[in-house]
Write a structure and sequence with these properties.
single chain; alpha/beta; Rossmann fold; 7-stranded mixed β-sheet; two-stranded antiparallel sheet; 6 helices; 9 strands; 36% helix; 18% strand; globular
Length: 214
């Protein structure tokens, strides 16, 4: 069972939304807790959870990985995402039950490798989550999407134009593949930004939250 830091609801009531933050390769849940602190004032009824990925990072032992990137081939990345999916699905199920929330109160937010996990899992769960936000990532197992997708929650993808780790082309490929599968995708390219999250992306995420929970 994976675990990690959490940012509690701002109100005194039980949480009415669950936002799960999925970190990138070599990082940990604390890294994305900064997002929770920024977004909490707009989402005072949301509980933010940021689990550490299930494996110690192969290249940075102080961090974690959802799967190894020793082999960067598409086949290995696709297989790694699938392998890690059961762990993430279990984490989601446990916390939805714990806080007595339905899937339509859940948002998955990923960065880089975490975006791959959010897209892989969020689009294949039997019930639709409220939405998926992905920063600086790519769409794994794209060729299987049309046959495997179970629900089509709205998706927001944001990518830096100067991303040196995952080129911005990955965003356009993902938008095309998601659209072909009937998924509503909003997307944005952050001009001048590398493999990171910019202020414009943070603001777009706030608007996305407001739209899906309005």
């Amino acid at each position: 069972m994976i675990s990690g830091p959490q940012y509690p609801v701002e109100t005194t009531d039980p949480p009415k939304q669950l936002i799960i933050l999925l970190h990138g390769f070599g990082s940990d849940g604390n890294d994305l807790m900064q997002l929770a602190k920024l977004w909490a004032k707009y989402m005072p009824e949301a509980l933010f959870l940021a689990p550490n990925a299930p494996e110690i990072c192969t290249t940075s032992p102080s961090g974690y990985q959802w799967f190894s990137l020793a082999d960067l081939s598409k086949a290995e990345i696709d297989a790694g995402v699938i392998k890690a999916s059961s762990t993430l699905n279990s984490f989601i199920d446990i916390n939805l039950r714990k806080y007595q929330l339905k899937e339509d109160r859940l948002v998955l937010v990923g960065f880089s490798q975490g975006t791959m996990m959010a897209l892989q899992v969020g689009l294949r769960r039997p019930q639709s989550c409220a939405g998926i936000i992905g920063f600086s990532g790519q769409l794994p197992n794209a060729e299987k999407l049309k046959t495997e997708v179970k629900k089509t929650p709205p998706v927001l993808l944001v990518h830096g134009a100067n991303d040196e780790i995952i080129p911005v082309k990955a965003l356009f490929n993902a938008v095309s593949e998601l659209g072909a599968a009937g998924i509503n995708v909003q997307w944005h390219v952050s001009i001048g930004l590398g493999h990171s999250i910019g202020a414009d992306g943070l603001e777009l995420a706030v608007e996305f939250f407001k739209d899906i929970f309005s």
